[in-house]
Amino acid sequence: MIISRNEAILLCKSFPGVVEDYPFGGDHAVMRHMANRKMFALICVRDETVWMNLKAEPEHVVAYQAKYASVVPAYHMNKKHWVSVILDGSIDSEALRKLVAESYALTAPRVRRLE
């Protein structure tokens, strides 16, 4: 199933404490944690197809690229820690949600322990 830009934004907003931002202008949506303002997804349209940049564990990056044809080295991002997911219908919604959840968790605010 091909996922639209708005559906990608709604998927990101389904996680708690998420804000949608447009720091680059245009239609490049940056999805951030409200608490620490860290970005966990960048959503844009390239060649009439929606792309999402998502953070991933370095050891998962290569595995995701091997498993899913639509997961490629991150566009304009650190390729060790970020991937681009081309939302052309070749990745199922459950796998996409898992990738978004990982990115969300990796950029979430850290809880300080009082000792």
Describe it for me?
The structure is a single chain. The protein has 115 residues and is α+β, with helices and mostly antiparallel strands. The protein contains three helices and six strands. The chain has a six-stranded antiparallel sheet with strand order 1-2-3-4-6-5, with helices on one face. A hairpin with a 5-residue loop joins strand 2 and strand 3. The longest helix has 15 residues, at 93-107. It is globular, with a radius of gyration of 14 Å. 29% of the residues are buried.
Features:
single chain; 115 residues; alpha+beta; 6-stranded antiparallel β-sheet; 6 strands
In short:
By secondary structure, the protein is of the alpha+beta class. The protein has helices at 5-13, 58-67, 93-107, and strands spanning 18-21, 29-33, 39-46, 49-55, 71-73, 82-86. The N and C termini lie far apart (49 Å).
